[in-house]
Amino acid sequence: MKVINSEIKAFLEENKMWVLASAGSTPNAVPIYFTKVLNDNKLMLVDVFMKKTLENIKSNPKVAITVFNAEKLQGYQIKGIATYITEGSLVDEGNTMASVLKLNAKGVVTVEVEKIFVTSPGPDIGKSL
Question: Which ranges carry the Pyridoxamine 5'-phosphate oxidase N-terminal domain (predicted)?
Answer without folding.
Answer: 6-94
